[in-house]
Write a structure and sequence with these properties.
By secondary structure, the protein is an alpha/beta fold. The protein is globular, with a radius of gyration of 20 Å.
């Protein structure tokens, strides 16, 4: 006999899960007088099909991202948010920028995305010195090289999951047929192909985060930036997102920079940069 606790959680012994072939995620199918648990293979066997990895010749350096003595402040009299920071990040790894709130994690991501400019220093990303780009040049560079996932929902609520991913691709210049094909492929990769036609505002928080990840990865960016990607998620759902981030690095050849204070994200990273 299995007991449901006061929070509604059903805990399955490891022996039972192993015998049933269940892994980390199951789907509950209720009917009168019973609930059937069905194994749902989320991402272990799902690899992006025909997703191009950056060719070695396309990389100018073994280091994909570099910060050289970067300082950033938002008012002349304020203390710098980032002060004389130098760091490098290797290609095709999962890197975490950690630190408490106010340490400058989001500011650092904005500098890497050329959304902010440093007061002092240089920022190199994907072979470009991005701090020297003009506004239009930076926009074109982001379009061809960068994916971004926010901790907040940035989906269009009245559009379906598929339409949200396809719209992001269309705005980047993909044709409608290719956008539709890529959207379907990447929604399958994040385990949401069965929910592709569901409106974004009817998805759970974890499902919305996975749609946002599919949208960021669908153009095959060299660099993925993610700001607190597990924020506001329960730990099980957060671990699914972490596994997808690791798969994006290992299977799609993306270099991921993740700002997070989540211990699970930090422990999963290849490298850690701690901001004070």
């Amino acid at each position: 006999m299995l007991i449901i606790d006061e929070h509604g959680w059903l805990r399955l012994p490891q022996r039972v899960r192993r015998q049933a072939g269940l892994r980390e995620r199951v789907r509950a199918q209720p009917s009168w007088g019973k609930v059937e648990l069905v194994a749902e293979d989320l991402a272990d066997s799902r690899a992006p099909v025909a997703t191009p990895r950056p060719a070695p010749a396309d990389k100018r350096y073994a280091t994909e991202i570099a910060l050289d003595r970067v300082t950033k402040r938002f008012a002349a009299r304020d203390a710098p948010v980032i002060d004389d920071l130098s760091s490098t990040f290797a290609a095709e790894q999962l890197h975490v920028v950690a630190g408490p709130s106010g340490a400058g994690k989001t500011t650092l991501l904005n500098l890497l995305a050329a959304l902010e400019r440093p007061d002092v220093g240089q920022v190199w990303v994907a072979g470009e010195r991005v701090d020297s780009l003009g506004r239009d040049e930076a926009a074109r560079w982001r379009q061809r090289s960068l994916g971004y996932v926010s901790q907040h929902s940035t989906l269009v609520e009245h559009l379906s999951a598929h339409e949200n991913v396809a719209l992001g691709l269309t705005l980047r210049g993909f044709t409608q047929p290719e956008a539709a094909e890529r959207a379907a492929r990447w929604l399958e990769w994040v385990g949401l192909d069965r929910l592709a036609d569901r409106r974004a505002d009817r998805l759970s928080g974890g499902e919305q985060r996975r749609v946002a990840l599919a949208r960021a990865l669908a153009p095959s960016p060299r660099v993925l930036l993610a700001d607190e990607p597990t924020a506001h998620l329960d730990r099980v759902t957060g671990r699914i997102v972490i596994r997808l981030l690791r798969d994006a690095v290992g299977q799609a050849g993306t270099t991921a920079i993740v700002a997070s204070h989540d211990p699970d994200v930090i422990s999963a990273a290849d490298t850690q940069l701690h901001l004070r």
